[in-house]
Amino acid sequence: MKNIGSKIVIVGVSASGKSTLSRKLAEKTNLPLVLMDELMWSPGWEYVGDEKILELLLEEIKKENWIIEGYITKEARSVIFEKADTIIYLDYSPYLLVWRYVKRFLQHRKNPRPELQGSPEKFNQIILVSGDGDYKMLVDFLIEEKKFKKILFPNRKFASSLYKSLGRKYFAYLEESKNKIEN
Q1: Which of 25, 51, 43 shows the shortest CA–CA distance to 116?
Q2: d(C-alpha 35, C-alpha 32), whole Å
């Protein structure tokens, strides 16, 4: 672990495990951890603003060592990346990410994540754009939870037959939606 650096940035797509990895890495290396969600959000999902985030990050990177985890605003990105000696980018399969996001929502819909005090996870409905049948179990679960709106298939050719049992209420084709938007 000593060769990993002392100024580490961990970024990646939503639900890729940035917070989990950064906490474990901070524990193993004894480096101070900066969670971007703590800096970016006030209770109730109130965004503090780009200027405030940049100001806070500039203070953090003055320190001798750190781990900064999460989405880094465009204004701060070049400054932070320039100071970092290690950048870790997490990129996983969309299937895994969707599952993790739903799992996180279910875990934290009443009790917010530690870095987001006063901001429980929330979403009303999911619209999934895919023709792949790999999401069928997740779709069934979300329908049961009354959180699923619709799956949009790219076209009729790439629509998994697994979804046909859902009925047209839960699926549509992008080619149809495109025509409605253009008209």
Answers
A1: 43
A2: 10
